[in-house]
Design brief:
three-stranded parallel sheet, about 120 residues
Length: about 120
């Protein structure tokens, strides 16, 4: 019986996390993608809050410093590359995710790309 081979799938996991909880969910999704032999890009959405607001919360500030070293923000070229985009966000910070989803124009036929 001949072996059936599929082309690799490109998966981008985009997340917004202040303290690391949503980051862990994004990492779990990424692990599943890698286990399924997909190509993976992990991207963290930028904070909309100002530096002064973040600095007033030591836990947020510490988590942000670490995550800025580990991740870059999603770029348009990442969305073009991806066959699948998974988005993770906590319920207490929807603005960052909403802004990204609007930028992608999800649900808008003009935002859908032909492959």
């Amino acid at each position: 019986m001949p072996e059936f081979s599929l082309a690799p799938v490109n998966v981008m996991v985009v997340f917004y996390s202040r303290y690391g909880e949503t980051e862990r969910l994004a990492l779990a999704a990424g692990l599943g993608a890698v286990q399924a032999r997909a190509n993976l890009r992990l991207r963290r959405l930028k904070d909309l809050a100002g530096a002064a607001t973040i600095e007033r919360d030591p836990r947020w500030s510490e988590s942000l410093e670490r995550m800025l070293a580990d991740y870059i923000a999603p770029r348009e070229i990442d969305a073009d590359w991806a066959d699948v985009i998974l988005v993770a966000s906590s319920p207490d910070s929807p603005a960052e995710t909403e802004q990204y989803m609007k930028a992608l124009r999800i649900g808008d036929s003009k935002g859908v790309r032909d492959r």
